[in-house]
Amino acid sequence: MRKAKKDVFEASGLMRFFVGSFVPLAAVAALVLLLAPAPAALAGGDDGELEFCTYNLDLAFGQSFNIRNFVRFKDGDREGDRVDWSQAFFTYTDAEADDPVSAPKANWHLSDFNAGAFVEVGPGDAESGTGNHGDGRFRIYLARPGQDKFDDHMTIRVSEEGDDIFDAMCPGVVGDFVWDDSAAPDGLQEAIEPGIGGVNVILLEDANGDGAVDGGDIYLDQTYTSPDGRYYFAGLVAGDYLAAVADRNFLFPGDPLYQFVPTLAFQGGDPSADSNGQASLLGSAAAFTLEEDDSVDLTVDFGFVFSPPDDGDDDTGDDDTGDDDTGDQDTGDNDTGG
Ligand SMILES: [Ca+2]
Ligand SMILES: [Ca+2]
Ligand SMILES: [Ca+2]
Ligand SMILES: [Ca+2]
Questions:
Q1: Which ligand is closest to the CA of 177, given by its number?
Q2: Pick the residue with more confidence: 109 or 306?
Q3: Which of 163, 178, 188, 215 is packed most tightly, with the most Cβ within 10 A?
Q4: Residue 39, by phi and psi: left (phi above 0), alpha (psi -120 to 50) or beta?
C-alpha cells in the first residue's frame, strides 16, 4: 500500500514540492481560532485500536511534522472512523525500551507534539544532555485513556540528514490542481489553461460529514500551489474532508486570485476535468471522501475566472472624443520622379 503511494510521488516528482510545503502555521492562526476547537468528535471512539503507519520515522533538523499524519485505525473495518485526538496519548522512552510503564521517560521538549500541532525538530532534539535520551532516538507509544497497554509504538530518529518523511506517512493523498479557467470559462480544464501558483489551500476534517464548511469542522493543514498550480495533502487516512481556497487568496492586488471568481463546478461529468469548488464559509470549498486509508484522489481541483469589476465609468455611452483624424495628409507624391 505504501509502495503505491510512494510511486505516486516519484512518478510526478513531487518530493521537493512537498518538503517546501511544510510551512509554519502562524499565518493561519486566525483561521484556526475561527474554526477550531470543536471538541473533537468522538468518532466511534470506543475500542478501535490505533496504530502508526510506520515503524521508523527519521526526521532531519528543521523538518516539520504532524503526528496526525502518522496515525490511523488499525483494523480495516474501521476505515472511515476518525481518530479522536483528545483520546490519543503518547509516551516517549529510550529507543530500546520495551515497557513504556517502567522505562524511563524521554523528556522531549516538543511540547506541542501531543496536541497534533506541527512541530519542527532541531539539533537540540538529537543531543544527550538536553533532557533527551539516546542521542535523538526515541520510542514513542500510542495509547488511549483507561488502557494499561499501548496500542502501538514506533521509533523516531532525529539526525542531520533525516529520511523521506513522506514514505513514513499514512498513505492517503488528495490534490491536485488550481487553474485559470478564463481562456474557455466553462468549468473544464483545457490544455491552454494554466495552473495558478501560490494559492493557499486549506484542509479541514469535515467532522460532521455534511459536506459543508461549518464551525464544527477541524482544521488540519494548509499548503500552497506550486508554480504550475499543483497542490497535495499527504498523510491522510480514510475519512470525510474539505479542501478550501480561502478568501485570503482574493483580497488584495498581488494576491494570486485577486479579481478572480470561482468557475462553474461539476461540469461535464468527468471528475478529473471539472472544478469542485463551491461557495462556502471559507471561500471556495470542496468536500471529498477518502474511502480507504490508502485512497489517492487527485480530482479535487479548483478553477477560477478572471473577472475584474466594472468601474461603471466605462459604459457611459459613446464618448468618442471626436475624430482625431486630421484628414488626409497625404503629403503628396514625393516621388521625386524617376
Ligand atoms: Ca475551461
Ligand atoms: Ca462540515
Ligand atoms: Ca474535479
Ligand atoms: Ca486533478
A1: 4
A2: 306
A3: 178
A4: beta
Q: 277 alpha carbon to ligand 2 midpoint, in Å?
A: 15
Q: How far, in Å, from the CA of 205 to the mean position of ligand 2? A: 8
CA–centroid distance, 201 to ligand 4, in Å, is: 14
What value does the mean pLDDT take over residues 237-246?
94
**pLDDT digit string (tens) for 56-102?**
988 888 888 888 889 888 876 566 667 777 777 777 777 777 777 77
pLDDT tier, 120 (very low <50, low <70, confident <90, very high otherwise): confident
DSSP 57-74: EEEETT-EE-GGGGEEES
**What is the SS3 string spanning 169-203?**
CCCEEEEEEEEECCCCCCCECCCCCCECCCCEEEE
Closest alpha carbon to 220 in 208, 200, 210, 206:
206
Q: Minimum-distance ligand to the CA of 302?
A: 3
Is the pLDDT at 316 greater than 50? The verdict is no
For residue 268, the model assigns a pLDDT of: 97
Residue 297 Cα to ligand 3 midpoint, Å, equals 9
DSSP string computed for 123-183: GGGG-BTTTBSTTTEEEEEEE-TT-SS-SEEEEEEEESS---HHHHS-SEEEEEEEEE--S
Mean pLDDT of the chain: 76
Measured in whole angstroms, the distance separating CA 219 from the mean position of its chain's CA atoms is 10
Determine the number of helices (DSSP H) and then strands (DSSP E) in the chain: 4, 18
Q: How far is the CA of 54 from the centre of ligand 1 (A)?
A: 41
- 51 pairs with which residues across the strands? 72
Confidence bin at 161 (pLDDT 50/70/90) = confident
CA of 140 to the centre of ligand 2 (A): 32
Rounded to whole angstroms, the maximal C-alpha distance in the chain is 112
| 244 CA → ligand 4 middle, Å | 15
